[in-house]
Amino acid sequence: MVENQITWLQPGYRVNEVLNIAVTKFKAAGVAQPVSDARILLGHSLNKPNERFYGRENDVIQSEHLDDFSKKILRRCKREPVSKIIGVKEFWSLELQVAPYVLDPRPDSETLIEAAVKQFPDKNRILKILDLGTGSGCLLLAALKEWPHSYGIGIDIDYRCVELAKINARRNGLNNRVKFQTGNWASNLDEKFDIILCNPPYITANEIATLDEEVRLYEPKRALNGGPTGLDCYTELAPQFSNLLSAEGLIFLEVGFDQKKQILGIMRSNNLELIKIEKDLAQRDRCLILSDKHC
Ligand SMILES: C[S@@+](CC[C@H](N)C(=O)[O-])C[C@H]1O[C@@H](n2cnc3c(N)ncnc32)[C@H](O)[C@@H]1O
Fold first, then answer.
1. Total structural domains in the chain?
2. Residue ending a domain, choose from 25, 43, 78
3. pLDDT tens, 176-195?
4. Of 54, 80, 93, 245, which residue is most buried, by most CB within 10 angstroms?
5. Is any atom of ligand 1 closer than 6 Å to the C-beta of 133?
């Protein structure tokens, strides 16, 4: 049972005392990284977001902001992710704003950017990039950072994600090379692209109930739920892909680590050809690189 009182921290406590209180509570709540989470949240509460307090454990905290830290501790004890509490998450060295209605960018998804960089090593190229299911805009914005003369379109079915992605583009100085718009995948598009990035929802409906509370309770279901088999979105996307590719165009498609075989079947029956599979940091198959057989 998570308590709701916020009276246990007082100005005059030392850094190590408040951190110890937070860490003890996080451990009791089953938080996976209690120490680093406590340090990050304390920094944010004291309006020093980059401070981690190493070597400053004996500093006395004279701050009315400790109330804010108490509230953040309670939220984390209810397993709300740190990113959702502080409102930002890093992806590909970009700092992105996040919100309850948008999926937190994941390190696994950086595999798509790494894969694209390997396939298109010339950073001076002017590439046209499409990101389907853009969420926070993380994939497209990371790609635009890599190819500084390129431009792109990001689509999401949720207008709130589109608005947040625009904010993230401005925040990272990329807004003049990107357009974010609402849409049902690419149904409103009649253009060709050199790079298509796509991380669709791919968790099976049953599996969602077994995920960590951080995901199950705080990530938007629309960003996770791939239907009864997890494959619904791939089936919707596959017939759209080949119409969207330029002559040398490639698709970088994120997949669940155990879904490769079925998804390749769907893609092949829509005239798409596998170029390569890239693995994530845990060495699991994560990114299919596909091209149009007819190009
Ligand atoms: C797994 S999240 C990926 C978000 C982001 N690209 C990332 O990698 O973190 C999937 C995204 O697809 C969006 N989405 C779901 N169905 C869609 C559809 N039919 N058309 C466009 N976007 C859709 C969701 O709103 C969600 O933002």
1. 2
2. 78
3. 999 999 999 999 999 999 99
4. 245
5. yes
